[in-house]
């Protein structure tokens, strides 16, 4: 059985405004799944999403989709490989968050990745 395709983030470091905001983040997200990033304001959720999608430059580390490195690719080149969608959580029914209950001052950021064929 083939391994599922993933968005892989390894040892990601990102700086914003001269300050390090991501400190060696690593994760893998299966393509087609929905993943929620939950954390306090200022914890780095938007910076992580920006780095994965190519909006923010990566200081060091690796972002890959289905084994293809995305670091340094233009937005158009990234779209040729795959697409990402992000939505700010809206008021509404509580989301399943793997046991974490968002608290006041935290936010939920759903993330979906799809591989272009």
Description of the molecule:
The relative contact order is 0.26. Helix content is 14%, strand content 45%. The chain has a single domain, classed as P-loop containing nucleotide triphosphate hydrolases (Rossmann fold, 3-Layer(aba) Sandwich), CATH 3.40.50. It contains two helices and seven strands, in the order βββαββαββ. The radius of gyration is 14 Å and the shape is globular. It is mostly beta strands and 117 residues long. It has helices spanning 45-53, 75-81, and strands spanning 6-16, 19-30, 34-40, 60-65, 68-69, 82-86, 106-115. The strands form two sheets. It has a four-stranded antiparallel sheet with strand order 2-1-4-5, with helices on one face.
Question: Could you name the key traits of this structure?
Answer:
single chain; 117 residues; mainly beta; Rossmann fold; 4-stranded antiparallel β-sheet; 3-stranded antiparallel β-sheet; 2 helices; 7 strands; 45% strand; globular
């Amino acid at each position: 059985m083939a391994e599922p395709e993933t968005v892989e983030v390894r040892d990601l470091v990102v700086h914003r405004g001269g300050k390090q905001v991501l400190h060696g983040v690593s994760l893998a997200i299966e393509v087609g799944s929905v993943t929620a990033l939950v954390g306090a304001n200022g914890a780095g959720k938007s910076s992580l999403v920006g780095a994965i999608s190519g909006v923010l430059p990566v200081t060091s580390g690796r972002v890959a989709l289905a084994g293809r490195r995305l670091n340094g690719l233009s937005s158009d080149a990234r779209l040729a490989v795959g697409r990402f969608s992000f939505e700010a959580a809206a008021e509404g029914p509580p989301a399943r968050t793997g046991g974490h209950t968002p608290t006041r001052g935290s936010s939920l950021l759903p993330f979906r990745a799809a591989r272009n064929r």
